[in-house]
Structures are given as C-alpha cells and as structure tokens.
Amino acid sequence: LPPPRSELDEVLAFIYTGPTQPTENDFKRTPLLVSHKRVSAALEWLKLNHEGYFDIDISYDNIKSYP
C-alpha cells in the first residue's frame, strides 16, 4: 500500500458535498494533491494499531510518485 498511481482510477473515489455539483473549472482551480507525509503517517498508524494491516508492506516509492 498504497497502490501505484496507474491503479488509482480503479480504486479511488471522491464524494463531494454541497449545494451544487463541481464543474470542470472547479477541478482545474482546485487540484487534488496528496500529502506524502499524511499518507505515510496514516498507513504507519494503521499498521501499528489495526490487526488487519499489521503485515502490510508500505511502498514509499508509490507514495513519492503521487502529485
């Protein structure tokens, strides 16, 4: 974990809340960025604190490839 960027289209979903659906301009103005430190910290926390994740391998190379 996490999966390579090339697989994200198959596993990543976003839910937007608010009075209107986002437009194409909204997406251009507000790009989706990934905090490498937060993804790493979340996966490390899960590995230490959740029995279902104790044996995962964290791919820091995959994390570095995210925008």
Mind explaining what this structure looks like?
With about 70 residues, the chain is an all-alpha fold. The chain has one domain (about 5-65). About 45% of the residues lie in helices and about 0% in strands. It is built from 4 helices and no strands. The protein has helices at about 10, 25-30, 35-50, 60-65. It is elongated and about 40 Å long. It starts with 7 loop residues before the first helix and ends with a helix. About 0% of the residues are buried. The model has no long low-confidence stretch (mean pLDDT about 85).
What is the strand and helix layout of this fold?
Blueprint: H1 8-11, H2 24-29, H3 36-49, H4 60-65
Organism: Neolentinus lepideus HHB14362 ss-1
Domain DUF6570: 1-63
Pfam families: DUF6570
Total individual domains: 1
Outline the biggest β-sheet: none
Q: Tell me which oligomeric state these chains represent.
A: single chain
Spatial gap, N to C terminus:
16 Å
Nearest-integer average pLDDT: 87
Following the backbone from N to C, one meets helices and strands in this order, namely HHHH
Radius of gyration: 15 Å
Count of helical stretches: 4
Strand content: under 5%
The helix content, as a percent range, equals 40-55%
